[in-house]
Amino acid sequence: MMNKENYIAVLLTCHNRKGKTLTCLNFFHNAIKPDGFLFEIFLVDDGSTDGTADAVKTNFPNVKVIKGTGNLFWNQGMRLAWETALMYRNDYDYYLWLNDDTFINKDAIIEVLNVAHESCLSNDIKPIVTGACHESKENMIFSYGGRMNDEPVVPNGKLQKCSRINGNFVLIPCEVYKKLGILSGKYTHGMGDFDYSARAEKMGIPCYTTRSYIGFCATNKKISSWCDPKKSFIERWKNFNSPLGLNIREYKEFLKVHSLSWKRDITKAYLKFLLPKLYLKISNFFKTFQI
């Protein structure tokens, strides 16, 4: 594919899930690496108290472990990993995001690189490539990857564009980084990945999903606490404002920048939070009658 050595910085962040982090790194270690590509892994250990950092250093001594503050969460942790990689080497050919709960197939790296190569043959613009994941080894239902008009882009063996990406396994070419920079500092946990693809779209940088599933990562099937009718108002309020919940302040900022109907979307969020039972009934009514 390439006639020179290509350097790829692999970026991860983690907090107190040692087993998953080690499993993720093991899957990555066992994945096929194409000739001519060298991988350097940067892992932010964001205040773990379960021995993650020591376990990673013991089992994967080549991984560069970076100490976080304990309050970084996903987006800020990934920013720190990216910033550290740039200090280590400023000429990476690609940056590869990897969630520590995403377990990739042996051909996952080959697949994202092939999609990156083949998709730019038709438009000469190097794209962002997101890897499509399914729920588990046994459950082949889509969980994370690319989305178009809020609908998942399910792999079908062909090149497919998407407008938004989940950050589970994402290949960012150097040329894209030079235009977009790293993940935005406006977000703490979620929305950083959607923001990155939304900014790419505005700049004419295409996003593609892989033609096949590259691995698996389970979704959280529980209803979010901020709109769960079974939760108290106080519990919903805390989650409504939490980085691990909706994080309404950052959600507003995201919508104002990237949504034409941001006022409607914010109103819906407040209705779901304040009147979750009523909102659920109305939503089910519309679904039933396909309105």
Would you mind describing this structure in some detail?
By secondary structure, the chain is an alpha/beta fold. The chain folds into two domains: 211 residues, Spore Coat Polysaccharide Biosynthesis Protein SpsA, Chain A (Alpha-Beta Complex); 64 residues, no CATH class. Helices cover 39% and strands 20% of the residues. The protein contains ten helices and 15 strands. The strands form three sheets. An eight-stranded mixed sheet has the order 3-2-1-4-13-6-14-11. Strands 5-15-7-8 form a four-stranded mixed sheet. It has a three-stranded antiparallel sheet with strand order 10-9-12. Helix 9 packs across helix 10. The radius of gyration is 19 Å and the shape is globular. The model has no long low-confidence stretch (mean pLDDT 93).
| CATH architecture grouping of the largest domain | Alpha-Beta Complex
Oligomer: single chain
CATH superfamily of the largest domain: Spore Coat Polysaccharide Biosynthesis Protein SpsA, Chain A
Instruction: Bin the strand percentage.
Output: 15-25%
- Distance linking N and C termini: 49 Å
Tell me the CATH topology of the largest domain: Spore Coat Polysaccharide Biosynthesis Protein SpsA, Chain A
The residue-averaged pLDDT reads: 93
- Give the helix level as a range of percent: 25-40%
Coarse morphology:
globular
Computed CA radius of gyration, to the nearest angstrom: 19 Å
Number of domains: 2
Return the CATH class of the largest domain.
Alpha Beta
**Helix and strand string, N-terminal first?**
EHEHEHEEHEEEEEEEEHHEEHHHH
Structural class: alpha/beta
